[in-house]
Amino acid sequence: MIFIYAIYVILMYLFYPLIFIVFSIMALFNKPIRKGALSRLGFIYPKENNKNAIWIHAVSVGEIVAVKEIVFYLVEKGYSVYLSTTTVGGYDIAKKNYGDKVELFYLTLDYPNMINKLIKLISPEYVMITEIEIWPSMIYCLHKKLIPLYMINGRIGKKEIKGYKNFQFFFKPYFNMYRKILAQSQIDKKNMIKIGMPESLIKVTGNLKYDINYSVNEEKIDDLESRIPANKFVITVGSSHSNEEEIILKAINSLGIKENIFIVIVPRDINRGNEIKEIAAKLGYNLPLYMEYETNSEDGIIINTIGELLNWYKLSDLVIMGGTFIGNVGGHNILEAIYFKKPVIVGRYMYNFIEIYEYMKECVFNCEDKNKLAEVIKYAYENKDIRDAISEKAYNLLIQNNGASKRTMDIINKFQGIQN
Question: pLDDT at position 416, please?
Answer without folding.
Answer: 94
